[in-house]
Amino acid sequence: MTAARPTVGWIGLGAIGSPMARRVLAAGFPLVAWARRADAAYALAADGAVVAPSPEALAARADVIATIVGGPDDVRALHRRLIPAARAGTLVVDMTTSAPDCAGETAALAHRCGCLAIDAPVTGGVGGAERGTLTAFVGGDPAAIERGRPVLEAFCSRIVSCGSAGAGYRMKLVNQTIVAGTLLGLAGGAALARAYGFASASVKDALGTGTASGFLFDSYVARMMEAGGPTTFTLGLLRKDLALARDEAARCGSPTAFVDLALGAVDAARREHGDGAGVQVLGSPDPG
User: Fold this and answer.
1) DSSP run (H or E) holding 237
2) What separation in angstroms does the CA of 188 have from each of 13, 248, 276?
């Protein structure tokens, strides 16, 4: 391994993972990719990635293994395959929004295999991944975090150390709880604006620099008012994140009333629109 350009093994080529991986390649890191959908991995080959035939083959070639997958079960199953196949000293960086107890399991497995692990979930959306302006919430040993920093800097403008293993996951769940509240507020506001007959452009112009403004307002108010636009974050993913947040809140003895309310709203939208619908449908008129 060279200090400047370790070989990065990448698993997770969804809507946000693909532009992150492309930024790693563009930063000059050798990249080995694997995906359950082979076409997703081969799409990176044109940019210079090597496609591995299996997670184990990827692990054997990588100095840093980066994963960003669906949820805790995916993380556990994948890391149980990857880490025993990795070389001693390999760093595992998981960027999934996952359960904090996954961090302890991954760290223990990594320790037994002579590897290192950090949890580093990201926020900032698909656009942030494309621009390289994501924020990573990182949990783990400070030395391991510094090992991972050059790779994270390829797609993050902020890397925030949150504490020991699992702290990055916990901070992301705090983030997602706040995001859910903002999205539900935007949905209610969009419905009211629509009832008044306001156009989305008028709402953006009037509110875009006031106390209601911000990243999510800019991203979603028009999509919610018009119930359209690109899908960059789905109801299914939001529901998964909120369920994790509720479980953690219950475990810590923190109130769950808001998360329960948010889950109810998301579940109602899922019944109407399906898991794959974008969160902008939260602003759609009530069915019927």
Assistant:
1) helix 235-252
2) 33, 27, 21
Range of the domain at 36: 8-164
Q: 249 and 233, same structural domain?
A: yes
* HSE of 122, CA atoms in CB hemisphere, 13 A: 30
Burial label for 165, CB within 10 Å (0-12, 13-18, 19+), is buried
**pLDDT, tens digit, 9 for 90 and up, residues 9-19:** 999 999 999 99
CATH number at residue 12: 3.40.50.720
Instruction: Determine, yes or no, domain membership for 287.
Output: no
The 10s digit of each residue's pLDDT in 144-176 is 999 999 999 999 999 999 999 999 999 999 999
d(CA 259, CA 243): 8
Secondary structure letter of residue 215 according to DSSP: H
Does residue 209 lie in a domain region?
yes
User: Which secondary-structure segment (H or E) carries 50?
Assistant: strand 50-51
- In this structure, the answer to whether residues 181 and 147 fall within a common structural domain is no
Place of tokens 């950090």: 118
User: Angle CA(179)–CA(199)–CA(124) in degrees, nearest 5?
Assistant: 25
Q: Residue 125 corresponds to which amino acid?
A: G
- Specify the number of domains making up the chain: 2
